[in-house]
Amino acid sequence: MSSAPTSSNTTDNSQQKPQERNGPPPRRRQGRNPPPPTRTRYQQTTQGGTQEKKKPVFVKVDQLKPGTSGHTLTVKVVEQNSVPQKPGVASSHQRPVRIAECLVGDETASILFTARNDQVGLMKVGTTVNLRNAKIDMFKGSMRLAVDKWGRIEVIEPADIAVRVDNNLSLVEYELVNVEG
C-alpha cells in the first residue's frame, strides 16, 4: 500500500470559491408574522368604465334620529357658545382643545352642534354651512350633531333659511331601554 495522496471526490472547504448568483435573490421564508400585503387602490368599475360618485342625499334636521350617522345637511348657525376648558384636564403633551356648542337648524327644526378645534372658526353666527358625513352623538341623554375627521364642514353662500328654534331636538331627552325578545 502506498501512502501517496490520491485524488478523491472530497474538497477542502477553505479553498472553495463562493458560488456566484445571477438574477434576483431567493425568496425569504415566511415567519410567523408575514409582512402585510402591499396596498392597492380599488376602483369600482362597470361595463362602461369607472363608476361616478353618488350625489349626496340632503336630509332635514327633523329627520335626525339618535345613534345615526352619515348625514348630509344644510344648516344655518343661530348662536355659538364657547365651552370653557376645565383646568387640569389638558396635560402638557397635548394641545388644548377648543370646543363650542352651536345651535344650528333649518326650517324644520334645530339641534346643538358640537364644534371642535378648527371647526369653531367656521361656525360663526349667521353663516350657512353644509355638513357632510355628520353623526348624532348622545350627551347626557340628548342628541348632539357632530362632524368627526371623516366628515366635512363647508361654508356656503348665505341662504334665506328661517331657522325653527322652537323645535330644538337637543331638548328632547332619550333613555336607553333594553328590549328582551
Automatic annotation (TrEMBL):
Compositionally biased intervals (Polar residues): 1-17
Which positions fall inside the Single-stranded DNA binding protein Ssb-like OB fold domain? Answer: 64-155
Q: Residue ranges under compositional bias (Low complexity)? A: 39-50
Q: Which InterPro entries match?
A: NA-bd_OB-fold, OB_Ssb-like
Q: Where is this region: Disordered?
A: 1-58
* CDD domains in alphabetical order: SoSSB_OBF (cd04491)
Coiled-coil residues: none
Give the protein name, as stated in the record.
Single-stranded DNA binding protein Ssb-like OB fold domain-containing protein
Organism per entry: Eruca vesicaria subsp. sativa (Garden rocket)
